[in-house]
Amino acid sequence: MAGNVIYLFMWGYQASYRIQIQILARNVLAKLGAPTDAEMLLVGARRPGSQNKNPVCVEPENGKWQLSLFQGLLDSVESTYQNHRLQNMFFGDESSMRDKPEWMRRDSVRISVSKALEAFDPEHCVTSFCGEVRRIDDYYVTPVIQIPNATFEQFPPLLEKSIDKDQQGSGFRSLIHAAMHAVLHEATEELHNPDPGRFSHRSMRDAGEIIRIAAKDFLHTPGLSIERRYIHTDLFDALNLVSSLMYEGTKGIGQLILVDPENDSVEFLARFAEPVPFREPRWVRKVLQMAVTGVGIIADSQYIYGLGQLTGLHDSSAQDAFTVAFIDHYHWELYCGNQALLRSHFAVPKLPQEPFDKTAFLANYERLFPISSQEDGLHLWSLLLTQARQEHGSMIVVAEDAASEARRLSKQGTNIVPIRLTESLLQSVSGIDGTILLDPAGFCHAIGIILDGEATDQCTPSRGSRYNSGVRYVQTGSHQRLAIIVSDDRTIDIIPRIRSLASRSKIERHITTFETATLDNYHDSRNWLDEHRFYINSEQCERVNRAIDRLDALPKEVGLIYLRTERFKTHPEMDESYLTD
Prior knowledge:
The protein is of the alpha+beta class. The chain is 36% helix and 22% strand. It has 4 domains: 14-218; 226-350, no CATH class; 358-495, YojJ-like (1; 502-580, no CATH class. It has 19 helices and 23 strands. The radius of gyration is 28 Å and the shape is flat.
């Protein structure tokens, strides 16, 4: 950036490098289906013998991470180095002995930076992930990614597990942990290049590649947890291949239990004389065909040992058994007990979650149908989940004028005596063509209804007739209506679309940050506010617009790239029901 002075200088492209890694981390979280609130910082520890005036550098230098946070870092590095576990390690080759001091130095910096952040994390409700350290000129640089703890409340990781002396480790606690490790590996590799941050977009993997690497890494966790002598296998690819195979025209649905076959909690119903290897995917698929309700395949990361189940006394908190549920063609999920850990659909890994945010759905339902009760909303939520699990497409329409609409459309469907739609009844009546018509209390008035309505701008030729008829009917009616549409390809849509809820405190925090931002650090707060315009009220819009005017008026150095921001105005549909806390 022309004319921009970096006081805590490590190398010329440090800001660009940090921003690119932060964007990559956020893109990875978005691909996984998690909130994208990751933040990135760099910590530089001065190398021994350097005369640089700054013992420690932090990028960004004007961010929330003050230099005082790393006071005494160099002393901590030296103490850790002197007591490092490799000090008394002797390697059999000269090259490793030559490199050992550098390995210890890098690791000592990483450990010391992690310790320095131990007090910061709980105070700011974040979890820090420190990458491997590399030296750039006078500094040993540690890339650090911080994730809000709220993300791990939404997607709980496995509990910390003690490791037996014979085990090689316990793997990653969650897919997010594995993903951040993969991002930081990219960050470290980039530090090897000349001028890291200058051409990073050409040298680093994209988010799609990284989430697959993370899934492969995370699928080592079951093997490491259940086996004494774990041999690394590509379980992620093996499970994807098995789930993609058909057996005599049928898709594989069943359970595979990853467990030590000698575990006391395993109850075999049939044990094979010779284990079936995972490297024989068609054989594995044939075995899966034998798994029926209540019966699973007993396997570790390499072999299938037979058919069986876990006894009722098994304690899932021991993390010594994992379950792979094959739920559809090319679609499976990984569990530890009842805790869902990963979902793979057509070999694309994601975090397991409901198709829509439950809290936002209930708030939206109450907003559309004020006469409905909270219990009514919960009832519709359970119907939505049942509908999503079915193997065929279907559509439910909730209309405040359901009774009169059932009479009007009686020649285009089958009217019934109103009865509250249950999950079992839904499974029965959704098997025919047409729409199920409910009132806001969940009472069904008609089944197999053919909807009408005029085409709108929301209709699209890229979607099928079920989706477009739902859009037409909901948007052209004069009464409040809601459609839940499950297409044959398992795509789920809700019309009108559900807006997520936003945190008042987070909105206020970003506005306050933007009000004091400079031309060097306005980007994050500006981008967040730009993405959340819908939730900004009139008083906040005035504050944001004043901040925009102030930044627009600041003198700009020649060569500075400055993004102008469209002025904010309130959205006509916004009200307090979209806000939390």
